[in-house]
Design brief:
Blueprint (H helix, E strand, L loop, with lengths): L1 H37 L1 H25 L6 H17 L4 H20 L5 H16 L3 H6 L4 H26 L3 E3 L3 E5 H21 L5 H29 L14 H5 L2 H16 L2
Antiparallel strand pairs: 1-2
Helix pairs in contact: 2-3, 2-5, 2-9, 3-4, 3-5, 4-5, 7-8, 7-9, 7-11, 8-9, 9-11
């Protein structure tokens, strides 16, 4: 009897989570498509909002591990990275990092030992992780054919998550990373990669902005590295001892829970394109 109740409870939790995920998708996908289509300031402001929330969540996770983060410095660093992406000025990246480090050094000198080198390093990491990485969504949209390319990155990333999830539930047996994420399986991971590559091939059939091999490679990189980004965020949550980075998105959790893969896939696709396709 207890076993039946447990099974029913797990099934109920699954369908509840699935309902919230579908609801979030119904609301979020049209908004995302509009912002990507429009680009410019609206997209940049949306990315800035994601970066601010992501920085807040990352800082909160790290503080739970006992590491203090200088949040004003992390926020300003993330803001400057997003503004820099909007201005298309890659030459300022070094200047932004130098400014962030200089401000951190001044704080270090004035407040040591209340503020130390570990906290400075973590502050820079937070601004890079949730600020600089996300800013590549803006940079990707500014490339020739940017609407198509940004959708390619986003939908292959989502396809990886979706195919991995359902393949894992249907066929998963061997654990992929049991310490970091006990529910992820090797079979699910392979399904996610296959889903990403298949989605990229569909984009080639629809758009064909360059050769099929490049779409397949992009799908492969997204399928593999997107899951690495997901597991990296899982490592942060494990260190903090929590399940979700937040609760702002129903069915998903926090901003990091939804965009953890994209933190890696957006810059990977961008740098692949500018070094291989648009070089």
């Amino acid at each position: 009897m207890a076993g039946c109740i447990k099974v029913k409870s797990e099934a109920g939790d699954f369908f509840k989570m699935l309902f919230y995920r579908i609801l979030s998708a119904v609301v979020g996908i049209p908004v995302a498509i509009f912002l990507i289509w429009y680009g410019g300031i609206p997209l940049s402001l949306a990315v800035l909002l994601l970066a601010v929330l992501g920085i807040y969540e990352t800082g909160s996770l790290l503080r739970k591990t006992g590491v203090n983060v200088w949040m004003p410095g992390a926020f300003w660093g993330g803001l400057l990275f997003v503004v820099n992406a909007y201005l298309k000025n890659t030459d300022l990246l070094g200047a932004i990092l130098l400014l962030l480090l200089a401000a951190g050094f001044i704080r270090l000198v004035c407040l040591y030992p209340r503020f130390n080198m570990t906290e400075l390093a973590v502050t820079v990491f937070v601004s890079l992780y949730a600020g600089w990485l996300l800013s590549h969504i803006i940079a990707l949209r500014q490339l020739p054919g940017g609407f198509h390319l940004t959708l390619l990155m986003i939908i292959t990333t989502w396809s990886t998550d979706t195919f991995a999830y359902f393949t894992g539930r249907a066929m998963g047996k061997r654990k992929l990373a049991p310490v970091l994420s006990p529910n992820k399986t090797v079979e699910g991971s392979i399904g996610g990669i296959a889903g990403s590559v298949g989605t990229a091939a569909v984009f080639w059939a629809v758009g064909q902005q360059f050769g099929l091999i490049h779409y397949i490679l992009i799908g492969l990189f997204v399928g593999v590295l997107g899951q690495v980004g997901d597991l990296a965020e899982s490592a942060l949550k494990r260190l903090a001892g929590i399940k979700d980075s937040g609760s702002i998105i129903p069915g998903h959790g926090g901003i990091l829970d939804r965009f953890d893969s994209m933190l890696i896939t957006a810059p990977v696709v961008y740098f692949y394109l500018i070094t291989i396709i648009f070089a």
